[in-house]
Amino acid sequence: MWRLDVLTTPDWVARVETRPVELLSDHAHCELRAAASAQALIVKYTEHAALVQRMSAVAREELLHFELVLDELAKRGGTLLPARANPYAEGLLAARAHRKEELLLDRLLVAALIEARSLERFHLLAEHLHDRELAAFYRGLVPSEAAHQALFVELAKEHYAAERVQERLAELRAAEARVLRALPFDHRMHSGELDPAPHARTGGAANVRP
Ligand SMILES: [Fe+2]
Ligand SMILES: [Fe+2]
After folding, report:
1. Which secondary structure element, helix H or strand E, spans residue 41, and what is its range?
2. Which ligand has its closest atom nearest to the C-alpha of 146?
3. Does domain 2-194+204-208 have CATH number 3.40.50.720?
4. 192 φ/ψ angles, rounded to the nearest 5 degrees
5. CB under 8 Å to 122, separation ≥6 — which residues?
6. For residue range 107-156, what is the model confidence (pLDDT) as tens digits?
7. Any idea where the domains of the chain sit in the sequence?
8. For residue 162, how far is its CA from the centre of ligand 1 (angstroms)?
């Protein structure tokens, strides 16, 4: 098991739920980007057959999630809003190493971290949203995103030594915390709003399986 270095305060849900259409539109774009990233890995690493196959499955699932989020948007009278810059993902991508031999490691671990943060927020939304139908929707997405998060770390361990994966994961976890700490609150899935006492709370929200 490993956990994110910083946790989101449950107050984030109270703030983000005031504009559900903005949150859902941003979430839809996240799913679309996740599908695109999985396809980008296929294009970049054609020689790794197992990775190609698994990333194709991930891309399909993420597109399915995209459609499910669009349905939730429509139910609430919303439609997909134009894509915005994504400072969270950009900050994480900037933290990737430039060493060619570890590029795949960092690509996989950054993907795992984005999944882990999304998962943490899905747990919070499932628990605290006043819109209980939307809460159930987020609870329903948890198993699939948890499996993706585990898959990215598993793939990293197929290509790199386990100790190196753990070491690099710790470094990138710290980078993820720095990126998120620097972000202001916004009605978006990966906006800033962190718990000042990160590990005071216990429970499964930030515990993620390697
Ligand atoms: Fe997804
Ligand atoms: Fe995912």
Report:
1. helix 20-44
2. 2
3. no
4. -75, 150
5. 138, 139, 141, 142, 145
6. 999 999 999 999 999 999 999 999 999 999 999 999 999 999 999 999 99
7. 2-194+204-208
8. 26
Distance 62 CA to ligand 2 centre (A): 6
Beta bridge partners of 99: none
Q: Is the pLDDT confidence value at 200 over 80?
A: no
Tell how far the Cα of 149 is from the centroid of ligand 1, in angstroms. 10
Q: Is 203 left (phi over 0), alpha (psi -120 to 50) or beta?
A: left
State residue 3 phi and psi, 5-degree precision: -135, 155
**What per-residue confidence (pLDDT) applies to 209?**
46
> pTM for the whole thing?
0.92
Within 8 A by CB and 6+ apart from 21, the residues are 73, 76, 77, 78, 81
β-bridge pairing 2-3 and 207-208: antiparallel
* Spacing, Cα 120 to ligand 2 middle (Å): 12
Ligand positioned closest to the Cα atom of 29? 1
